[in-house]
Structures are given as structure tokens and as C-alpha cells.
Specification:
The complex is a heterodimer.
Chain A lengths: L43 E2 L8 E12 L2 E12 L3 E6 L5 H9 L6 E6 L11 E4 L13 H10 L8 H13 L15 H13 L5 E5 L7 H18 L2 E5 L3 H7 L2 E6 L2 E6 L1 H4 L3 H8 L14
Parallel strand pairs in A: 1-10, 4-8, 4-9, 6-7, 7-8
Antiparallel strand pairs in A: 2-3, 2-5, 9-10
Helix pairs in contact in A: 2-4, 3-4
Chain B lengths: L1 H8 L5 H24 L7 H18 L8 H21 L4 H26 L5 H6 L7 H30 L1 H6 L4 H42 L3 H26 L3 H30 L1
Helix pairs in contact in B: 2-7, 2-9, 2-10, 3-4, 3-5, 3-9, 4-5, 4-9, 7-9, 9-10, 9-11, 10-11
The chains are: A alpha/beta, B mainly alpha.
Chain lengths: 299, 286
């Protein structure tokens, strides 16, 4: 589902999408009038149609850290089989929103649901590619071990032929087969990014969460990752959430976009609904920094 | 040839040497398996800290009226509690792990010294040297039984736990997403290290116990690119170092704890030289 043709670059036409009328030629015919939830103040929140299945849902979720409201009463969800881009300036709460979804941190209030239920995310086969790779470089690890550890859920002491072939196939998809037996500690940032995407895909996840996957990757790598995301979405119907600071990437691959600012959801909708709102673009793509970055996470 | 054969095998004609070898193999392999998990995490000095906690536990045991060989039943839970305290402080305060370790290390040692001082006034005949430097040849039957039971329990548990704890040691967050209960595993690792340390104190003493935890794993890390290879080299080094150390201890009448530690030290130097030679050779041909 290409959204590219639906994008209107109408910088400066601030409220052109506020009423949701001018952009109804999206593949998703569910565009409604702007919906402002009880806890949402922004006029640029266009909720998906109620029949859309929710793979991961934040229900009035807040998270406080160090006396700061990092995520502030967010209600939104990832629609099944869609690629949602999450945008916002540094410190807007993007990474923490996804970490809440992953169950890595607990909300101070609100709940996170998976397919409508509150079953542990561990049983949902969710894969994660963090922005900062906090690997222990003192640990003796090769790339194939990292992939097979994700596959087995335990560190491999030896690797079977079938596992080696599987790991090779995953790296091949990212054009990085040459990394298979390399030490993880000597990889460049871009190489490590590809390895982490391959390790995320090896469990064939239902939901894939990526925090700035294009960062540190060269242009050829970006192209490859973009194509891979499109392929995962169309062939495997995978639900994907992706944090990015690039409007080009959003316009190329997103089915839906969320905008966060100071921990609040300020925009949510199809690219055709929100990508031409100048305020949102300024928030996300010409952003300004906030203090209080947590755990090395950027958002 | 006969001289070499006698040098190697004659010690094991004696029952006490066969017991010593059994204890050394159980404990060194257990410490090796724990070492491969601790050393890459930067927790090399944990064994040292816990060994000194054992000293405090032994002191409390003696104060309670227990004999030295019975004090293991106090020092065991004491060391486990100290270990849990170190992990808890690391997780719930902003103290660095080694700072918490340093505090417990010093306080436990002080408890041990104070307790021994009080006890030595009441009765003489407490062999402090055996506590500090260990004596694998003088381990009592009840202690051998404890080493067999607890050592085997820890080793069997590690067969299941080792790959999971290792994964958490590489990247805790991703391990938790793979379903591993990272915090519980951390406490388990510390508990097993505390148990191994208390048992090993009987054999090599408070002062040398960290040698079994650190030196084989350091050699294993130096020689390996993968975790599986590190585990192999670490266990092999532990077995070699302990056996050679015991043989030398018997033949040259050197304290067993120090001869086993020295043997590991020599193996460390051999590993450094060997790896250096291999690297040079590889550079020559590349």
C-alpha cells in the first residue's frame, strides 16, 4: 500500500487537513472527521475506524520518570498489518511509549493491551530494534550467536546447521551475509543496525518495533531497510512501529503516523491527514530538544 | 618416564589426595562455570568480596558456639544474604556495584576479625590460617558431603541456567524480551556464586578463592571469540590448574591453595604467550 501518491506537500496550509475532507483518496477509506478524545486536546487526531484490529494499544497510558511526565495520558494503538511511524522531537516520549508497549517499563497509570487483552507482551512475539545498542562488548559474541540467541531465547553454546542456515538467510535479506561469523564488538554502527534488524526478524514476530532503524545506516542500507519494511508489511502482514525523524521515510513507507510532543499525542492519522500540517511537521522534523532523556533512549 | 609417572600418579595412591582431587574438580569446574558469567559482566571481584563475607559468617558461627567445620551452615546463608544485598543496592540505589561490594567486603571482614578475637579469648585452637588460606587436604567428611551436594546442585542448575544468564549478560533488555526473568537470574547467579565461594573457602581459603572464579575465565576469554569456546577453555583450564596444583603441592610440600593458584597463574602466562604467537603467525601470513 503506497501512500506516496497521497501525500500533499502543503506547508503553510495549517488547517487544510483539520476537517479530513480534502484527502479522502487514501487506500483506507475510513477517514473520519477529526476526533478529539476525552483526554486529547489536539485537533489533528484522526482515529482509525473502529473495525481496525488493534495489535498493541496504549489506553490512557502515562509514565513518570524523575519527576517528569515523559508519557502523558496517551491513548492510541497500532493497527494490525500497518506500518505506523512515530515522530516527534528529542525527548517527546517516542522511545518510552514503545518501551511501555514492549513491557520494558511499567506505566504509572493506564494499561497496555495486545490484541485487546492484557496478556504479557512476552507471549506475543514482539521484536524490538533499540536505537542505542547497549551490548556488553566484554562478552565473547559473534553475529550468528546474537541471532540464534534471539531465536532460542537463550545463548547458544553450539550452533546446529539448520540454525546457521536460518541466520544466514536473515542476514542475506539485509545484504549482510558477510557479517555472519564476525565478532559483534568490532562492527560499525550501520553493521550493528542491520544485525539487530536481522535478529528481530529471526523469530518471525507478529509486531516489530524499530527505534530509528535508519540511523547510522548508509543510503544503500536505508533503501534496503525501507524495501524490507514494505515487504514485511505486504507479504507477512506484520504490524510495524517505527520511530523516525525523516519526513521522507514517513512519506515513503508509513500507513499511519503518530506525532508526540512533550509526552502527549498531538497528531495521529494517515499521512495524507497529518503530514501536511505545518505545526506537526515543525514538531517532528525541525524539532527542538527537551531535557530528561532516559536510559540513553532518545525519545 | 618412571619418574614422571610417579610424580603424576603417586599422590593419588593416598585416599586423602583422591578426596582432595574430587573436591578440587567439583569446585574448580563450578567456579569456572560461574566465572564465565561473572568476568564478562565486569564482576571479577565479586568472588573476593563474597569470600570476605564468608569470613564474617564463619566468625558469627564461631560466636554462636559452632565448631569451625560447622560454621559453614552460618557462613552459607550469610554470604547469600550479602550477595543479595549487593545486587539490591546496585538495582535500587545509585551506588555503583563495586562500591556496594566494597562496603560489604570491609564490614564482613571486620565482623569476622571481631568475632574471632572474642572467640579466641574463650577457647584456643581455632586455626585462623585454615580459614584464610584453606586446606583442601584437611576437609572434614561432613564438609566433603556438603561440597558434593551443593556443588552438584549448582552444577546441574547451571546446565539449564547458564545459556539464559549468559544472554542476560550480553544484553539484559533483549533477554527479558525473549522471556528471560533477568532480575531473578541475577539473584540466582549471585546466590550460586556465594554458595560456591563458601564451599571453596574450605579448599583454598578466603584469600585465594577468587583465583578459581577469575583466572580460568580470564584465560577462556582471552583465547575465545565465542561464549561456547570460552566455556570450554575455562573448564579445561580449571581442571588442569587444580590437578597440576595438587600434584605439585604433594611432591614439593607446598600449601595446596597457593600451588593451585600458582598453576593457574602459569597457565595464564602460557595462554598470553600462545595467543601472542598465534597472532604474530597470522599477521606474518596475511
Amino acid at each position: 500500500m503506497s501512500q506516496k501518491s497521497n501525500i500533499h506537500h502543503s506547508h503553510g496550509h495549517l488547517h487544510s487537513s483539520n476537517h479530513g475532507h480534502g484527502h479522502t483518496h487514501s487506500p483506507d477509506a475510513s477517514i473520519k472527521s477529526p476526533t478529539v478524545g476525552n483526554d486529547q486536546k489536539s485537533p489533528w487526531i484522526f482515529k482509525p475506524e473502529s473495525t481496525a484490529k488493534r495489535s498493541m494499544e496504549w489506553d490512557n497510558v502515562s509514565f513518570q520518570y524523575g519527576g517528569r511526565q515523559v508519557v502523558d495520558g496517551i491513548t492510541s494503538w497500532l493497527c494490525q498489518g500497518e506500518l505506523t511511524c512515530i515522530c516527534g522531537s528529542n525527548g517527546a516520549g517516542k522511545t518510552q511509549l514503545l518501551r511501555l508497549g514492549l513491557g520494558l517499563i511499567k506505566p504509572t497509570c493506564g494499561v497496555v493491551k495486545y490484541d485487546g487483552s492484557m496478556v504479557s507482551p512476552l507471549k506475543r512475539n514482539i521484536a524490538y530494534v533499540p536505537q542505542q545498542k547497549n551490548i556488553n562488548r566484554n562478552f565473547p559474541a559473534t553475529v550468528i550467536e546474537v541471532l540464534i540467541a534471539a531465536y532460542r531465547g537463550a545463548w547458544p553454546l553450539s550452533i546446529r546447521k539448520v540454525e546457521r542456515d536460518l541466520a544466514a538467510t536473515m542476514l542475506q535479506r539485509l545484504g549482510s551475509l558477510n557479517l555472519l561469523d564476525k565478532d559483534v564488538g568490532v562492527l560499525s554502527g550501520g553493521e550493528l543496525q542491520r544485525v539487530f534488524i536481522a535478529r528481530a526478524l529471526i523469530t518471525d514476530p507478529q509486531i516489530l518495533i524499530l527505534d530509528e532503524p535508519m540511523a547510522a545506516v548508509d543510503s544503500k542500507g536505508r533503501q534496503m531497510i525501507q524495501e524490507l519494511m514494505m515487504q514485511l508489511k505486504s507479504d507477512q502482514k506484520m504490524t510495524i512501529a517505527l520511530i523516525t525523524h525523516s519526513d521522507t521515510i514517513v512519506e515513503m513507507i508509513a500507513d499511519r503516523v503518530m506525532f508526540l510532543e512533550k509526552g502527549k499525542l498531538v497528531g495521529w492519522g494517515l499521512p495524507s491527514q497529518v503530514m501536511n500540517v505545518q505545526e506537526l511537521r515543525e514538531v517532528a522534523f525541525f524539532g527542538h530538544d527537551h531535557e530528561g532523556v532516559i536510559d540513553g533512549g532518545e525519545g | 618416564m618412571n619418574i614422571l609417572s610417579e610424580f603424576l600418579w603417586a599422590p593419588f595412591a593416598f585416599e586423602f589426595m583422591r578426596s582432595a582431587l574430587e573436591i578440587a574438580l567439583i569446585l574448580s569446574v563450578l567456579c569456572a562455570c560461574l566465572g564465565v558469567l561473572l568476568v564478562p559482566r565486569g564482576l571479577s571481584m565479586l568472588g573476593d568480596g563474597l569470600a570476605h563475607s564468608t569470613f564474617g559468617g564463619i566468625g558469627i558461627g564461631l560466636m554462636s558456639g559452632l565448631a569451625l567445620e560447622e560454621s559453614i551452615w552460618v557462613s552459607l546463608p550469610f554470604a547469600v544474604l550479602i550477595g543479595f544485598g549487593i545486587v539490591w543496592l546496585g538495582r535500587h540505589t545509585k551506588l555503583a556495584g563495586d562500591a556496594a561490594l566494597g562496603v560489604f567486603f570491609a564490614v564482613s571482614l571486620a565482623i569476622g576479625i571481631a568475632a574471632l578475637h572474642v572467640v579466641s579469648k574463650r577457647s584456643s585452637g581455632i586455626d585462623i590460617e585454615a580459614v584464610l588460606f584453606g586446606n583442601i587436604l584437611g576437609v572434614q567428611p561432613s564438609e566433603i558431603a556438603a561440597i558434593r551436594v551443593f556443588g552438584s546442585l549448582c552444577l546441574v542448575s547451571l546446565v539449564y541456567l547458564l545459556p539464559r544468564i549468559a544472554y542476560a549478560g550480553f544484553y539484559a533488555e533483549l533477554a527479558s524480551l525473549s522471556g528471560i526473568r533477568v532480575v531473578a537470574k541475577e539473584y540466582l547467579l549471585i546466590a550460586m556464586t556465594a554458595v560456591a565461594t563458601v564451599l571453596a573457602v574450605k579448599a583454598v581459603g578466603v584469600m585465594l578463592v577468587s583465583a578459581w572464579l577469575v583466572i580460568p575465565a580470564t584465560i577462556g576469554r582471552h583465547l575465545s571469540r565465542t561464549f561456547g569456546a570460552m566455556l570450554f577453555w575455562t573448564i579445561l583450564t580449571a581442571i588442569l590448574g587444580s590437578t597440576i596444583g595438587l600434584v605439585i603441592s604433594f611432591n614439593f610440600d607446598i600449601p595446596s591453595g597457593s600451588s593451585m593458584t600458582l598453576s593457574l597463574g602459569v597457565l595464564f602466562i602460557v595462554a598470553l604467550v600462545f595467543k601472542g604467537l598465534v597472532k604474530n603467525r597470522a599477521n606474518q601470513f596475511s
